[in-house]
Amino acid sequence: QVALISTVLLIWSCGKDSDPTPTASDLIVGNWKFSAVSLTIKVGNLSLVDYLISQGLTPAEAAEFAELFTMGMPEVDGTVEIKKGGTYTSTSDGITDSGTWELSADGKTLTLDKGTADQGVFTVATLTATELKLSGDESETDSGVTVNIHFELSLTKL
Predict the structure, then answer these.
(1) CA distances (Å), 63 to each of 87, 89, 105, 148, in order?
(2) Is the full-model pTM beyond 0.85?
(3) Nearest-CA neighbor of 123 among 105, 143, 107?
(4) What pLDDT tens digit does each residue of the chain (158 aa) get?
(5) Alpha helices, DSSP H only, in 19-157?
(6) Which of 36, 10, 11, 3 is nearest to 132 (CA)?
(7) Hey, which of 7, 14, 25, 134 has its CA 20 to 30 A from 62?
(8) Strands (E), 93-130
């Protein structure tokens, strides 16, 4: 009987997963490469093209202007290394930047450079061992006109 119980215990202990399930903070640590960026631009509650048409441009002119506007947006490419201990280093177009990161307890919000003028807050849409999808919103008002930019960033772990 002792041999049978020992065998059962041995099989049971081998079947248990000895590796704990990684936390969101564990998953986000690593080297990431930007793989895709998507922007949605609105002026008030209108798309950029519809707003430009409302200002007197033809649909063709509005589409051309909107394309030129989005081409003028800074490109997001390169890599970011998110390190244990709450720091990161990013490289884009040969320029390196570094700062701090913080992930909310529920893993749904990533904050870069908290409490500084460069603070960025992102919603974590997807976080796996190989994929990170972030989204966020920026807003700017000038001469009574508010421009809202919604962005989605896709990153792949290297």
Answers:
(1) 41, 37, 42, 18
(2) no
(3) 107
(4) 544 454 444 444 554 555 688 999 999 999 999 998 888 999 999 999 999 999 999 999 999 998 888 776 666 779 999 999 999 999 988 899 999 999 999 999 999 999 999 999 999 999 999 999 999 999 999 998 999 999 999 999 99
(5) 24-28, 48-54, 59-71
(6) 36
(7) 134
(8) 95-103, 109-112, 120-127
